[in-house]
């Protein structure tokens, strides 16, 4: 007897819910007069506000501690022009120039590092790695040890040395559009050559000149006054807006030359302008405090991790660079040693540890 197997019809399949897609971080557009708009990243704005608060707190803290402690309220009163005359003199004449120099140098280095790392599309594309900081130091050393001159002449030598080095590196790496690996490798080679030249200049100098030059090469904020702070402030007032204007073009250049050209960006003029602004910031910072290492390397990468925003993060990098150098100088002169250490010693240690961590992280990923 044949049996017929009756198969029940399968139940109607329930609709399968698709996995929720990752929602990108929301952006806000701020309308400006004249038909322009400004793109706002809420997380980046929050990070910049927190960094600004940290910068103010570091400033008050640095102005309050020392051989003559001043309470925070006394610091605020002195900055506002009130309070005892002796306290005002200690805060505004002895401590404030050094603190402001630290903030301005850190901001200039952080901003320059963000420009160069975005331009090179490489986390190692900071001015102290690709040789621009060493070139500025070479120009300043040539003035100190060979020509001789005032602080203004040393600053001019740093600017000239940085410009000459940047032009040489850029022209050597320009083939194929100054690709990132060429820029970094050629910059490292030029940096090594200039470091040898600096050692030669110190070896041929007199003992006293060589000693002062060696201390200057370490990077220090000791004995910094208004004559160091003022010119650097003028440079930042001029170059910070220029860097912010170049930010949009840099953001498009990150997508590649072809895409940027299709969107109306002329790649080579933008690169030249970025190099000019970055070298000006680096040279001014080097002239004010010597070649302080690793601030330009760490600040942009740390800000990008904090904000999780695309683009160069210029303002955040400047703020974090200022906070990082102010805290490093505070630790070097008050917290870690009985004597005042050059701040470049501490930033070198922090930067070395950061590089080890970065290499280990990349190795684990691969």
| Overall SS class | mainly alpha
CATH H-tier superfamily: ABC transporter involved in vitamin B12 uptake, BtuC
Shape verdict: globular
Per CATH, the architecture is: Orthogonal Bundle
β-sheet strand percentage: under 5%
| Low-pLDDT regions | 1-24
Give the mean pLDDT. 81
- In CATH, the topology is named ABC transporter involved in vitamin B12 uptake, BtuC
Return the domain count: 1
Sheet having the most strands: 2 strands, antiparallel
> Helical element count?
14
First-last Cα distance:
67 Å
CATH C-level: Mainly Alpha
Order of helices and strands: EEHHHHHHHHHHHHHH
Word description of this protein:
The structure is a single chain. With 366 residues, the protein is an all-alpha fold. The chain has a single domain (41-349), classed as ABC transporter involved in vitamin B12 uptake, BtuC (Orthogonal Bundle). 72% of the residues lie in helices and 2% in strands. It has helices spanning 42-64, 72-79, 85-120, 132-147, 151-173, 175-178, 180-204, 207-218, 226-253, 257-262, 267-289, 295-307, 314-335, 343-365, and strands at 28-31, 37-40. A two-stranded antiparallel sheet has the order 1-2. α1 (42-64) runs antiparallel to α3 (85-120), α4 runs parallel beside α7 and α5 runs antiparallel to α7. The termini are far apart.
List keywords for this structure.
single chain, 366 residues, ABC transporter involved in vitamin B12 uptake, BtuC, 14 helices, 2% strand
């Amino acid at each position: 007897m044949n049996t017929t197997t009756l198969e029940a019809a399968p139940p109607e399949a329930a609709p399968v819910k698709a996995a929720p897609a990752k929602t990108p971080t929301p952006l806000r557009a701020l309308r400006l007069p004249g038909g322009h708009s400004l793109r706002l990243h809420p997380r980046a704005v929050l990070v910049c506000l927190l960094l600004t608060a940290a910068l103010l707190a570091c400033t008050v803290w640095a102005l309050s501690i020392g051989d003559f402690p001043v309470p925070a309220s006394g610091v605020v009163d002195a900055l506002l022009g009130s309070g005892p005359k002796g306290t005002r003199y200690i805060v505004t004449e002895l401590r404030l120039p050094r603190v402001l120099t630290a903030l301005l140098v850190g901001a200039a280095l952080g901003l320059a590092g963000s420009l160069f790392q975005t331009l090179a599309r490489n986390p190692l594309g900071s001015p102290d790695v690709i040789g621009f900081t060493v070139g500025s130091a070479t120009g300043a050393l040539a003035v100190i040890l060979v020509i001789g001159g005032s602080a203004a002449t040393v600053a001019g030598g740093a600017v000239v040395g940085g410009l000459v080095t940047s032009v040489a590196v850029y022209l050597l790496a320009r083939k194929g559009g100054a690709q990132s690996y060429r820029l970094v490798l050629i910059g490292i080679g030029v940096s090594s050559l200039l470091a040898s030249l600096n050692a030669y200049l110190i070896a041929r100098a007199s003992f006293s000149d060589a000693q002062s030059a060696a201390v200057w090469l370490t990077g220090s904020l000791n004995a910094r006054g208004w004559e160091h702070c003022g010119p650097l402030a003028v440079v930042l007032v001029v170059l910070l807006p220029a860097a912010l204007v170049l930010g949009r073009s840099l953001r498009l250049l990150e997508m590649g030359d072809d895409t940027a050209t299709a969107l109306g960006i002329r790649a080579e003029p933008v690169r030249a302008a970025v190099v000019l602004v970055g070298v000006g910031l680096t040279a001014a910072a080097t002239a004010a405090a010597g070649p302080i290492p690793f601030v330009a390397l760490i600040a942009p990468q740390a800000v990008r991790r904090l904000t999780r925003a695309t683009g160069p993060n210029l303002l955040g990098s400047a703020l974090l660079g200022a906070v990082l150098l102010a805290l490093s100088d505070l630790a070097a002169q008050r917290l870690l040693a009985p004597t005042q250490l050059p701040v470049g010693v501490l930033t070198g240690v922090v930067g070395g540890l950061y590089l080890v961590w970065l290499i280990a992280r990349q190795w684990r990923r691969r």
